[in-house]
Amino acid sequence: MAKDIHPQYYPKTKISCSCGNKFEVGSTKENMEVEVCSACHSFYTGKEKMIDAMGQVQKFQKRLSRKQDLKKK
Fold first, then answer.
1. d(Cα 42, Cα 22) in Å, to the nearest integer?
2. Rounded CA separation 49/20 (Å)
3. In Å, what is the CA distance from 57 to each residue of 40, 43, 47, 69?
């Protein structure tokens, strides 16, 4: 490796997930916070999560109704 050009490597970086899971990996950062990890991701758990699906549907219906109201006028 060339001298003085590489970032410092931390072999025990502490990772904390929003689900509460904590683990250690090697990285160039000391601490990291992630939203999804293998303990809570639906691919690894086999469980499907609905993340604010109703909110998205309601937003779409609201936009659609505004568009229809403009066409009527």
1. 18
2. 17
3. 24, 24, 22, 18
Per-domain residue ranges for the chain? 1-46
User: CATH number of the domain at 1-46, please?
Assistant: 4.10.80.400
Give me the count of residues in the chain.
73
Handedness of CA 34, 38, 43, 47 (dihedral sign): negative
Task: Say how far apart CA 46 and CA 28 lie, in whole Å.
Answer: 31
Q: Which of 1, 35, 42, 43 is nearest to 19 (CA)?
A: 35
Kindly give the confidence (pLDDT) of every residue in the chain, 73 residues in length, as a single tens digit, with 9 standing for 90 and above: 788 899 999 999 999 998 899 999 999 999 999 988 888 887 777 777 666 666 778 888 888 888 888 777 7
